[in-house]
Amino acid sequence: MVKIKASKLRDVELITDTGIRLGWVYDLSFDEETGDILVIVAEPDEDLDVSEFVTDHEGLLLIPVNAVKSIGEVIIIDSTKLAVKSKLRRVSMIKEKLQQG
């Protein structure tokens, strides 16, 4: 396993495996108890419509770390694992239906 310093990731470009430019690494969010990285916090590309993506209160993208396919000159994100609002709505609707019986 290759070790990468978090400081080296700052401002690295994030691109999906389908070629969509998401933005640049701004920060990382960690689980306080385990120390695991939860999400990459990214400054969105100026041409990206962020309305379908999960963002924080400042408009920064929240990209789940399990969506990372590779890290090099750029970070490649698996588009099927990218958290988008439409997926989250579908998941919550399914959960509601299951709870209703």
From TrEMBL:
It comes from the Archaea. Pfam families: PRC. Residues 1-82 form the PRC-barrel domain. InterPro entries: PRC-brl_dom (IPR027275), PRC_barrel-like_sf (IPR011033). This is Photosystem reaction center subunit H. It comes from Palaeococcus pacificus DY20341. The lineage of its organism: Archaea, Methanobacteriati, Methanobacteriota, Thermococci, Thermococcales.
